[in-house]
Protein backbone atom coordinates (compact mmCIF):
# COMPACT_ATOMS: atom_id res chain seq x y z
CA UNK A 1 0.00 0.00 0.00
CA UNK A 2 2.98 2.35 0.09
CA UNK A 3 3.22 5.14 -2.48
CA UNK A 4 6.77 6.13 -3.43
CA UNK A 5 8.51 8.51 -5.83
CA UNK A 6 11.71 7.62 -7.68
CA UNK A 7 13.88 9.98 -9.76
CA UNK A 8 15.93 9.45 -12.89
CA UNK A 9 14.48 6.17 -14.18
CA UNK A 10 13.80 5.59 -17.87
CA UNK A 11 10.51 3.70 -17.82
CA UNK A 12 6.99 3.83 -19.21
CA UNK A 13 3.52 3.55 -17.71
CA UNK A 14 2.74 -0.13 -17.19
CA UNK A 15 6.36 -1.18 -16.49
CA UNK A 16 6.93 -3.32 -13.39
CA UNK A 17 9.92 -2.46 -11.17
CA UNK A 18 11.45 -5.25 -9.04
CA UNK A 19 14.59 -5.90 -7.00
CA UNK A 20 15.74 -8.51 -9.53
CA UNK A 21 12.99 -11.08 -8.97
CA UNK A 22 11.52 -12.09 -12.32
CA UNK A 23 7.77 -11.56 -12.33
CA UNK A 24 5.14 -11.82 -15.04
CA UNK A 25 2.44 -9.28 -14.25
CA UNK A 26 -0.95 -8.97 -15.92
CA UNK A 27 -0.80 -5.99 -18.26
CA UNK A 28 -3.24 -3.11 -17.90
CA UNK A 29 -6.19 -3.01 -20.32
CA UNK A 30 -5.69 -0.09 -22.69
CA UNK A 31 -8.86 0.90 -24.56
CA UNK A 32 -8.66 1.91 -28.22
CA UNK A 33 -8.61 5.69 -28.85
CA UNK A 34 -11.94 7.19 -29.92
CA UNK A 35 -10.95 10.69 -31.07
CA UNK A 36 -8.18 12.04 -33.27
CA UNK A 37 -6.74 15.49 -34.01
CA UNK A 38 -4.32 16.62 -36.70
CA UNK A 39 -1.44 18.54 -35.04
CA UNK A 40 1.15 20.73 -36.78
CA UNK A 41 3.72 23.00 -35.07
CA UNK A 42 3.35 26.62 -36.26
CA UNK A 43 7.04 26.85 -37.23
CA UNK A 44 9.29 24.22 -38.80
CA UNK A 45 12.12 24.90 -36.29
CA UNK A 46 9.89 23.68 -33.47
CA UNK A 47 9.25 20.29 -35.10
CA UNK A 48 12.03 18.31 -33.25
CA UNK A 49 10.84 19.67 -29.88
CA UNK A 50 7.23 18.93 -30.86
CA UNK A 51 8.06 15.27 -31.65
CA UNK A 52 10.07 14.95 -28.42
CA UNK A 53 6.99 16.07 -26.46
CA UNK A 54 4.72 13.57 -28.24
CA UNK A 55 7.16 10.70 -27.59
CA UNK A 56 7.33 11.56 -23.87
CA UNK A 57 3.54 11.76 -23.56
CA UNK A 58 3.17 8.34 -25.21
CA UNK A 59 5.52 6.81 -22.61
CA UNK A 60 3.52 8.40 -19.79
CA UNK A 61 0.08 7.55 -21.11
CA UNK A 62 -0.70 4.34 -23.04
CA UNK A 63 -4.13 5.72 -24.08
CA UNK A 64 -2.43 8.57 -26.00
CA UNK A 65 -1.32 7.47 -29.49
CA UNK A 66 0.53 9.28 -32.27
CA UNK A 67 0.65 8.23 -35.93
CA UNK A 68 1.42 9.76 -39.32
CA UNK A 69 -1.26 9.76 -42.01
CA UNK A 70 0.49 8.11 -44.96
CA UNK A 71 -1.78 9.91 -47.47
CA UNK A 72 -1.55 13.48 -46.14
CA UNK A 73 1.66 13.41 -44.03
CA UNK A 74 -0.27 14.85 -41.06
CA UNK A 75 0.67 13.98 -37.48
CA UNK A 76 -2.45 12.43 -35.94
CA UNK A 77 -2.79 12.40 -32.13
CA UNK A 78 -5.48 10.07 -30.78
CA UNK A 79 -6.92 9.84 -27.30
CA UNK A 80 -9.95 9.13 -25.16
CA UNK A 81 -11.87 12.36 -25.72
CA UNK A 82 -11.90 16.09 -26.30
CA UNK A 83 -10.55 17.08 -22.89
CA UNK A 84 -7.83 14.41 -22.95
CA UNK A 85 -6.35 15.83 -26.16
CA UNK A 86 -6.84 19.45 -25.08
CA UNK A 87 -4.71 18.79 -21.96
CA UNK A 88 -1.80 17.49 -24.05
CA UNK A 89 -1.99 20.40 -26.52
CA UNK A 90 -1.83 22.79 -23.55
CA UNK A 91 1.12 20.85 -22.05
CA UNK A 92 3.02 21.08 -25.36
CA UNK A 93 2.50 24.86 -25.24
CA UNK A 94 3.43 25.34 -21.57
CA UNK A 95 6.18 22.76 -21.01
CA UNK A 96 7.85 22.79 -24.44
CA UNK A 97 6.94 26.32 -25.64
CA UNK A 98 5.60 24.92 -28.91
CA UNK A 99 2.34 26.26 -30.36
CA UNK A 100 0.31 23.91 -32.56
CA UNK A 101 -2.24 24.29 -35.28
CA UNK A 102 -5.05 21.88 -34.49
CA UNK A 103 -7.12 20.21 -37.20
CA UNK A 104 -10.79 19.33 -36.85
CA UNK A 105 -11.44 16.42 -34.46
CA UNK A 106 -11.88 13.17 -36.34
CA UNK A 107 -14.02 10.37 -34.98
CA UNK A 108 -12.55 6.90 -35.47
CA UNK A 109 -15.22 5.35 -37.66
CA UNK A 110 -15.10 1.74 -38.77
CA UNK A 111 -16.77 -0.14 -41.60
CA UNK A 112 -18.31 -3.59 -41.60
CA UNK A 113 -20.17 -5.88 -43.96
CA UNK A 114 -23.55 -7.39 -43.08
CA UNK A 115 -23.95 -10.15 -45.67
CA UNK A 116 -21.94 -12.71 -47.62
CA UNK A 117 -20.72 -11.81 -51.13
CA UNK A 118 -18.84 -13.78 -53.78
CA UNK A 119 -15.80 -12.58 -55.71
CA UNK A 120 -14.39 -13.83 -59.01
CA UNK A 121 -11.76 -11.40 -60.23
CA UNK A 122 -9.20 -11.66 -63.02
CA UNK A 123 -6.38 -9.12 -63.10
CA UNK A 124 -4.82 -9.18 -66.56
CA UNK A 125 -2.56 -6.54 -68.08
CA UNK A 126 -0.47 -6.69 -71.22
CA UNK A 127 2.07 -3.97 -71.88
CA UNK A 128 5.25 -4.03 -73.96
CA UNK A 129 7.31 -6.24 -71.62
CA UNK A 130 6.16 -8.83 -69.10
CA UNK A 131 2.40 -8.83 -68.46
CA UNK A 132 0.40 -9.36 -65.28
CA UNK A 133 -2.03 -12.21 -64.69
CA UNK A 134 -3.77 -13.33 -61.52
CA UNK A 135 -7.25 -14.70 -60.82
CA UNK A 136 -8.88 -15.25 -57.39
CA UNK A 137 -12.25 -16.79 -56.57
CA UNK A 138 -14.06 -17.09 -53.24
CA UNK A 139 -16.27 -15.12 -50.89
CA UNK A 140 -16.26 -12.67 -47.98
CA UNK A 141 -18.62 -12.79 -45.00
CA UNK A 142 -19.04 -11.11 -41.60
CA UNK A 143 -17.42 -12.68 -38.53
CA UNK A 144 -19.56 -13.32 -35.41
CA UNK A 145 -20.01 -10.20 -33.25
CA UNK A 146 -18.10 -11.76 -30.34
CA UNK A 147 -15.09 -12.73 -32.49
CA UNK A 148 -11.79 -11.83 -30.76
CA UNK A 149 -10.13 -11.01 -34.13
CA UNK A 150 -11.14 -8.46 -36.75
CA UNK A 151 -9.88 -10.20 -39.89
CA UNK A 152 -9.61 -13.87 -40.88
CA UNK A 153 -8.16 -15.26 -44.12
CA UNK A 154 -8.94 -18.91 -44.97
CA UNK A 155 -7.05 -20.56 -47.80
CA UNK A 156 -9.19 -23.40 -49.21
CA UNK A 157 -7.31 -23.76 -52.49
CA UNK A 158 -7.02 -27.33 -53.77
CA UNK A 159 -4.44 -28.32 -56.35
CA UNK A 160 -1.94 -26.02 -58.02
CA UNK A 161 -4.21 -23.64 -59.96
CA UNK A 162 -2.47 -20.94 -57.92
CA UNK A 163 1.16 -21.89 -57.09
CA UNK A 164 1.92 -21.86 -53.31
CA UNK A 165 4.51 -19.06 -53.66
CA UNK A 166 1.68 -16.60 -54.47
CA UNK A 167 -0.58 -17.48 -51.51
CA UNK A 168 1.02 -14.99 -49.10
CA UNK A 169 0.76 -12.19 -51.70
CA UNK A 170 -2.98 -12.88 -52.04
CA UNK A 171 -3.43 -12.68 -48.25
CA UNK A 172 -1.46 -9.41 -48.14
CA UNK A 173 -3.71 -7.98 -50.83
CA UNK A 174 -6.87 -8.80 -48.86
CA UNK A 175 -5.39 -7.36 -45.64
CA UNK A 176 -4.44 -4.18 -47.51
CA UNK A 177 -7.95 -3.83 -48.96
CA UNK A 178 -9.59 -4.38 -45.54
CA UNK A 179 -7.50 -1.53 -44.07
CA UNK A 180 -9.51 0.97 -46.11
CA UNK A 181 -13.18 0.35 -46.86
CA UNK A 182 -14.81 1.86 -49.94
CA UNK A 183 -17.51 3.85 -48.08
CA UNK A 184 -15.37 6.43 -46.23
CA UNK A 185 -11.90 4.81 -46.25
CA UNK A 186 -12.20 3.54 -42.65
CA UNK A 187 -10.83 0.11 -41.63
CA UNK A 188 -13.20 -2.83 -42.22
CA UNK A 189 -13.77 -4.80 -39.00
CA UNK A 190 -15.12 -8.34 -38.59
CA UNK A 191 -14.52 -9.87 -42.02
CA UNK A 192 -13.66 -13.42 -43.08
CA UNK A 193 -12.14 -13.91 -46.54
CA UNK A 194 -12.33 -17.44 -47.98
CA UNK A 195 -10.23 -18.23 -51.07
CA UNK A 196 -11.49 -21.29 -52.97
CA UNK A 197 -10.05 -21.12 -56.49
CA UNK A 198 -7.96 -19.10 -58.90
CA UNK A 199 -5.80 -19.24 -61.99
CA UNK A 200 -2.25 -18.35 -62.93
CA UNK A 201 -0.12 -17.91 -66.03
CA UNK A 202 3.24 -19.62 -66.47
CA UNK A 203 4.97 -16.37 -67.54
CA UNK A 204 2.84 -13.38 -66.53
CA UNK A 205 1.82 -14.32 -62.97
CA UNK A 206 3.68 -12.59 -60.15
CA UNK A 207 3.22 -11.62 -56.49
CA UNK A 208 2.27 -8.10 -57.59
CA UNK A 209 -0.39 -9.40 -60.00
CA UNK A 210 -2.02 -11.58 -57.34
CA UNK A 211 -1.86 -8.83 -54.70
CA UNK A 212 -3.65 -6.41 -57.06
CA UNK A 213 -6.18 -9.13 -57.94
CA UNK A 214 -6.93 -9.66 -54.22
CA UNK A 215 -7.37 -5.91 -53.56
CA UNK A 216 -9.77 -5.52 -56.48
CA UNK A 217 -11.63 -8.75 -55.67
CA UNK A 218 -12.25 -7.54 -52.11
CA UNK A 219 -13.59 -4.20 -53.38
CA UNK A 220 -15.80 -5.96 -55.91
CA UNK A 221 -17.34 -8.22 -53.25
CA UNK A 222 -17.48 -5.56 -50.52
CA UNK A 223 -19.81 -3.38 -52.61
CA UNK A 224 -22.28 -6.31 -52.74
CA UNK A 225 -22.00 -7.20 -49.03
CA UNK A 226 -24.33 -4.43 -47.72
CA UNK A 227 -21.50 -2.46 -46.06
CA UNK A 228 -22.28 -0.16 -43.11
CA UNK A 229 -20.38 2.49 -41.14
CA UNK A 230 -19.82 1.96 -37.41
CA UNK A 231 -19.29 4.87 -35.00
CA UNK A 232 -17.89 4.87 -31.44
CA UNK A 233 -20.59 5.04 -28.76
CA UNK A 234 -19.62 6.43 -25.35
CA UNK A 235 -20.93 5.52 -21.91
CA UNK A 236 -21.68 8.91 -20.36
CA UNK A 237 -22.40 9.54 -16.66
CA UNK A 238 -23.85 13.03 -16.04
CA UNK A 239 -24.22 14.39 -12.49
CA UNK A 240 -26.49 17.45 -12.14
CA UNK A 241 -28.59 19.08 -9.39
CA UNK A 242 -32.04 17.43 -9.41
CA UNK A 243 -33.83 20.53 -10.78
CA UNK A 244 -31.88 20.16 -14.05
CA UNK A 245 -32.73 16.46 -14.55
CA UNK A 246 -35.40 17.06 -17.22
CA UNK A 247 -33.27 19.48 -19.26
CA UNK A 248 -30.26 17.16 -19.07
CA UNK A 249 -32.20 14.11 -20.25
CA UNK A 250 -33.80 16.17 -23.02
CA UNK A 251 -30.36 17.27 -24.22
CA UNK A 252 -29.09 13.66 -24.23
CA UNK A 253 -32.11 12.62 -26.32
CA UNK A 254 -31.39 15.44 -28.79
CA UNK A 255 -27.87 14.06 -29.14
CA UNK A 256 -29.35 10.67 -30.19
CA UNK A 257 -28.38 9.20 -26.80
CA UNK A 258 -29.99 6.15 -25.20
CA UNK A 259 -30.67 6.71 -21.47
CA UNK A 260 -29.81 3.54 -19.53
CA UNK A 261 -30.44 4.65 -15.95
CA UNK A 262 -31.05 7.65 -13.71
CA UNK A 263 -31.01 7.87 -9.93
CA UNK A 264 -30.66 10.26 -7.03
CA UNK A 265 -27.42 10.69 -5.07
CA UNK A 266 -28.07 13.19 -2.28
CA UNK A 267 -29.37 16.39 -3.88
CA UNK A 268 -28.00 15.39 -7.30
CA UNK A 269 -29.25 13.20 -10.10
CA UNK A 270 -26.91 10.85 -11.97
CA UNK A 271 -27.95 9.99 -15.54
CA UNK A 272 -26.19 7.15 -17.40
CA UNK A 273 -26.53 6.97 -21.17
CA UNK A 274 -24.96 5.67 -24.37
CA UNK A 275 -24.31 8.57 -26.76
CA UNK A 276 -22.53 8.57 -30.17
CA UNK A 277 -19.16 10.30 -29.77
CA UNK A 278 -19.79 12.48 -32.82
CA UNK A 279 -22.68 14.11 -30.94
CA UNK A 280 -20.63 14.80 -27.79
CA UNK A 281 -18.40 17.56 -29.19
CA UNK A 282 -18.76 20.70 -27.11
CA UNK A 283 -20.89 18.92 -24.49
CA UNK A 284 -18.82 20.18 -21.54
CA UNK A 285 -19.59 23.80 -22.50
CA UNK A 286 -23.28 23.06 -23.15
CA UNK A 287 -23.65 21.25 -19.80
CA UNK A 288 -22.02 24.08 -17.84
CA UNK A 289 -24.26 26.64 -19.54
CA UNK A 290 -27.44 24.64 -18.91
CA UNK A 291 -26.68 23.98 -15.21
CA UNK A 292 -25.05 27.28 -14.17
CA UNK A 293 -21.73 25.47 -13.93
CA UNK A 294 -23.03 22.87 -11.44
CA UNK A 295 -23.17 19.90 -13.81
CA UNK A 296 -20.31 17.51 -14.56
CA UNK A 297 -19.87 14.37 -16.62
CA UNK A 298 -17.50 11.50 -17.29
CA UNK A 299 -17.25 9.62 -20.56
CA UNK A 300 -15.61 6.36 -21.62
CA UNK A 301 -15.67 4.24 -24.74
CA UNK A 302 -18.37 1.56 -24.74
CA UNK A 303 -18.64 0.01 -28.21
CA UNK A 304 -19.01 0.72 -31.93
CA UNK A 305 -22.52 0.71 -33.40
CA UNK A 306 -24.01 1.23 -36.86
CA UNK A 307 -24.77 4.85 -37.77
CA UNK A 308 -28.27 5.78 -38.93
CA UNK A 309 -28.91 5.42 -42.66
CA UNK A 310 -29.17 9.18 -43.29
CA UNK A 311 -25.97 9.78 -41.29
CA UNK A 312 -24.17 7.15 -43.41
CA UNK A 313 -25.35 8.83 -46.62
CA UNK A 314 -24.11 12.20 -45.31
CA UNK A 315 -20.66 10.78 -44.40
CA UNK A 316 -20.25 9.11 -47.80
CA UNK A 317 -21.42 12.29 -49.57
CA UNK A 318 -18.97 14.40 -47.56
CA UNK A 319 -16.08 12.15 -48.62
CA UNK A 320 -17.08 12.35 -52.28
CA UNK A 321 -17.17 16.16 -52.14
Write up what this structure looks like:
This protein has helices at residues 47-60, 82-96, 167-178, 207-222, 245-254, 283-290, 309-320; strands at residues 35-41, 65-68, 75-79, 100-102, 106-107, 110-112, 117-125, 132-142, 151-155, 191-199, 228-241, 258-265, 268-276, 296-306. The protein has 321 residues and is an alpha+beta fold. Strands 1, 2, 3, 4 and 5 form a five-stranded antiparallel β-sheet that branches. Strands 6, 11, 12, 13 and 14 form a five-stranded antiparallel β-sheet that branches. A hairpin with a 6-residue loop joins strand 2 and strand 3. The termini are far apart. Keywords: Elongation factor, GTP-binding, Nucleotide-binding, Protein biosynthesis. Residues 106-226 form the Translation elongation factor EFG/EF2 domain.
Give a quick precis of the structure.
GO terms for molecular function: GTP binding; GTPase activity; translation elongation factor activity. This protein is of the alpha+beta class and 321 residues long.
Give the overall average pLDDT: 88
Low-confidence blocks of residues: none
Structural class estimated from helices and strands: alpha+beta
Number of strands: 14
Largest sheet: 5 strands, antiparallel
In sequence order, what are the helices and strands, one letter per element?
EHEEHEEEEEEHEHEHEEHEH
Terminal Cα span: 57 Å
Estimate the strand proportion: 25-35%
Please give the count of helices.
Answer: 7
Principal-axis shape equals globular
GO biological process, one term: mitochondrial translational elongation
Pfam family, one: EFG_IV
Domain Translation elongation factor EFG/EF2: 106-226
InterPro entries: EFG_II, EFG_III, EFG_III/V, EFG_IV, EFG_V-like, Ribosomal_Su5_D2-typ_SF, Ribsml_uS5_D2-typ_fold_subgr, Transl_elong_EFG/EF2_IV
